[in-house]
Amino acid sequence: MVRYSPLGRLSSTNHTSRTTMIVVFAVLAILSIASLAALRSSDFANRLHLFSSSPPPPAEVKDPRCPATGPNNHFEQQYGHELLQRSIAHEGTNKRLREKIAKAQRGESLRMAVVGGSVSAGHTLNDWRNIYFYRFLDWWNEQFPEGHHTIFQGAVPATDSGYYAYCFDKHIPKDVDIVFVEFSLNDASTLPCELNKQGSIVQAKMMESLVRNLLRLPRKPAVIMTSVFSYNVNEYLDGQESHLPISNYYDLPHISMKNALYDHLNRHPDDLRFKLYNDGHHLSDWGHQLLSDLISHYVERQMCAMSDQVQPPLLDNYSYNESIPKFDMFTHRWEQDKFRELEPYCHTFADQSYKPKVMEGWNFWNWQNEKFYIVADKPGSNITFEVQANQGVVYLYLLRSADYNLGNAWCWIGDDKEKGRELQGYWDKWYSIGVMTPVAEGLSQGQHLLHCELMNKTSNPNGGTNFRILAVASG
């Protein structure tokens, strides 16, 4: 008779239990490995999603003032998430812009303005209503139909930020709420570039003066910087590189078509060049629509952010409650006690009522009701302007070009002709543009006389002696 000892039975059961446990642990291990792999795969997929061309999932809309975001957004559908993100060169806190949006949401009317060059003047367009800022105004009116919103066209072809730093109030009213600034084509980079082979800090200083004076206007306007780019310029660098530090310092939004499309245009020129430009330099109707949409999309982002705002932290209240920085970007700390705001004085010949104090051999000239000069071509012709100094600087805004037989002039302050400066109208670059040219620095505060005389000497290889002045500026 076979007897099963309790120990034997227990041993058999123990063996079976161990086998079962091993199988269970193996299954659990396989499931854990599979789960971990799935999690890693999901994480990897999520990281890939950040760099994919697919738009992000739609965000919850918590307020009817916030337009739909994600793939349901009109701009996301048309241009894709990545292009729109790239176009925001600097986002900023947008305190001023959000204040203006809030005014519009309350049904108040806003006044806008534009300063810029030939792109903002609508060159090569058949219909001025297709310029980007008029299209933006149409979009703005759709978002805020209760107010009566207007925009002032203050752009002048072939001008740069230097001209507007002193003469902006000759072209736009002072009681504006939003100002668009577009000078990336006409301003040079601070780095060596096609427009200025040595690079120049002057352009950044001029743009800062313009921005600072705009921000000081009575209604504390929001300033929106924009950058376009030209296919005819043979390198990447242009005015945007002078402007971005100002956007950073003054906390300004900066919308850049160059950021969004420059590389694509290099890779696929035939795909985009004839769609974006009419002449390789000035935007087409589609180009203006794109720039308008980039700005509109950016404003939408602020509307959505406003609908989900939380109470700002203490540091936010402490650090960012001032309207503009106390000093400009170029004032050394040890010289801050000497800082004075620029109070610009501008005599532009676009104001046809202005007359110089003395004028012998010089004549007014209006080119197609678009560019206004005072012109001389006979050596010895002289002219005198009354100028007012605040920071002690005086400039002439000159036409510079390889065309028009341009020559040289000698300019000086007061009676000290020998300490004057020789100014050149001719240069060998392919484009013609106004350039803010320094005549004097370090002047005492008050009124001075600026004299200029057309020279026999000329830098023009063809012997040209024509000279064209668009404006006289001081501050």
UniProtKB/TrEMBL annotation:
InterPro entries according to UniProt: SGNH_hydro_sf
Keywords: Membrane, Transmembrane, Transmembrane helix
Transmembrane segments: 20-39
Domain of life: Eukaryota
Name under which the protein is recorded: SGNH hydrolase-type esterase domain-containing protein
